[in-house]
Design goal:
Layout (H helix, E strand, L loop, with lengths): L1 H7 L3 H33 L3 H38 L2 H28 L1 H6 L11 H15 L3 H16 L4 H23 L9 H25 L19 H33 L3 H17 L1 H19 L3 H29 L11 H33 L3 H7 L1 H18 L4 H10 L1 H13 L15
């Protein structure tokens, strides 16, 4: 029992260190997602069609965002361990690769969305006889997506900078940059969507312009801070003078370890969007209810994500310093913290679930469905917390092939076909379909528990790297 307590319950120094890393990430994500909720509400005031169209456009942006996250975080596994080993050159090399890879990804995604916007958006549209104007929703989605293209590159570069800062233990500055961007986004939304202060009422396009402006603000803040603090962040010194100068051995290892994670994020986001597409076969009213549900749940999931993401930093630095037992112990404590925290967060979501959908200017049937989906999400939140923290733990040791099977392969091989069969081939109410698909994550929880208990994730991946 004493051994179990040691691995599940930390001391004051542990929690102080954990919260120093996790709290800024939690705050940034909570505020970001809360602003996403406000954006959703403001666009929802324009009508169900506009809200649905923007939501579907954001499904495409969601795939892009996760792909960038996969690129940056895959390389970041090495960055974190280089920081733990005190290897400044290694950090600089991985930062260079992040900038190059994320920049090319942004350009490729922009071209794809520009030329294939119509067929991509139409994948999610199914008429359900509810009176929702399908063509108006499609036009709204295309209008929003066209403007948002301008924000793809600054978002990618922000993730390269912010990710590196976090991996070095600096979470506050990316948080402040995010909060500043959020303030810009909210202010411009009020002005541009509805035409306050004498500005034209641009509706959906105004929401997209506000988002793009906020992306540039966030990027400029992390850019200026990093290069102004070169004594602290030595990786920034000369980072662009020899941008393509990265040791071949390291590039090879980055490709081997990072590619499965990049592919995982891409396929997981595609698979998740495909699951949403399966739900959408029940009609646009279901899409609208899911939009409300996802937006609200994301706010509450900030605790889950913040603690989960912190596992990669806390455990990854221990791995880089070859403190394997400390890494195992700290990871288990972080997983326990995430799971128990989300018991309380889920309870709060359940208590507030009936209130959130009433804020939206949409049909009563959509509000009722969203309330039911929120209750399901609240009940399953601890499951998601354990699963996500386990995923980050396994990934921090460079076991990216394992995480590929754990994450995206599961979505494509299990979640997608089950959601398709239940949504498209049965008359089961959509709430029950949503519940059954969500409970599939219990399988991943069991697998994650076994892998972590067997300690197969413990691996220092930078000990044999030459960062010259």
């Amino acid at each position: 029992m004493t051994e179990v307590r040691r691995y599940l319950i930390g001391d004051k120094p542990f929690y102080r260190r954990a919260f120093c890393v996790a709290l800024p990430i939690i705050i940034q994500n909570a505020v970001t997602n809360f602003v996403g909720l406000l954006d959703n509400l403001m666009i929802g005031r324009l009508g169900t069609e506009q809200m649905t169209g923007v939501s579907i456009a954001n499904q495409l942006v969601f795939v892009y965002n996760l792909l960038i996250y996969g690129v940056v975080s895959g390389i970041g596994i090495f960055t974190t361990q280089f920081f733990g080993a005190g290897d400044e050159k290694g950090v600089r090399h991985t930062f260079r690769v992040k900038v190059i890879a994320s920049g090319f990804t942004a350009i490729a995604a922009g071209l794809l969305f520009f030329f294939l916007d119509d067929p991509l958006l139409r994948l999610f549209f199914t008429e359900d006889g509810s009176g929702v104007d399908l063509e108006l929703a499609l036009r709204s989605g295309k209008e929003y997506l066209f403007v948002i293209l301008a924000g793809l590159l600054p978002f990618a570069l922000t993730q390269a900078y912010s990710g590196t800062l976090r991996e070095g233990g600096e979470s506050a500055v990316p948080m402040l940059a995010g909060l500043s961007a959020i303030a810009v986004n909210v202010g411009l939304n009020l002005v541009l969507i509805f035409g306050y202060l004498g500005a034209p009422a641009l509706g959906v396009a105004g929401a997209a312009i506000a988002t793009v402006a906020s992306r540039f603000v966030e990027f400029l803040i992390v850019l200026v801070y990093t290069h102004a603090k070169k004594r602290r962040w030595g990786f920034a010194v000369g980072a662009y003078r020899r941008l393509f100068s990265v040791p071949g051995k390291l590039v090879k290892q980055l490709a081997i370890k990072s590619f499965p994670l990049v592919l995982n994020e891409l396929l997981w986001s595609v698979g998740t969007s495909a699951v949403v597409r399966n739900y959408s076969t029940r009609g646009l009213s279901v899409v609208a209810a899911l939009t409300i549900t996802t937006t609200v749940v994301n706010v509450f999931n900030s605790v889950n994500f913040g603690i989960g993401a912190s596992v990669s930093i806390v455990a990854g630095q221990a791995l880089g310093a070859n403190r394997l037992d400390d890494a195992q112990r700290d990871a288990c404590r972080m997983i326990a913290l995430a799971t128990f925290s989300c018991l309380f967060v889920g309870g709060a979501l359940a208590a507030l679930a009936p209130a959130f959908p009433l804020i939206y200017n949409t049909e009563e049937a959509v509000q009722d469905l969203a309330t039911s989906l929120l209750f399901v999400s609240a009940a399953c939140m601890p499951i998601g917390a354990f699963m996500q923290a386990s995923y980050f733990t396994i990934r921090s040791g460079g076991k990216t092939l394992v995480t590929f099977l754990f994450d995206s392969a599961f979505v494509l091989a299990v979640s997608f076909p089950v959601s398709y069969l239940l949504a498209a081939r049965t008359a089961l109410p959509i709430v029950w379909v949503y519940l059954f698909v969500t409970l599939l994550d219990l399988i991943k929880c069991v697998v994650g528990f076994i892998l972590i208990k067997k300690r197969i994730w413990l691996h220092n991946i930078v000990s044999d790297q030459t960062a010259a």
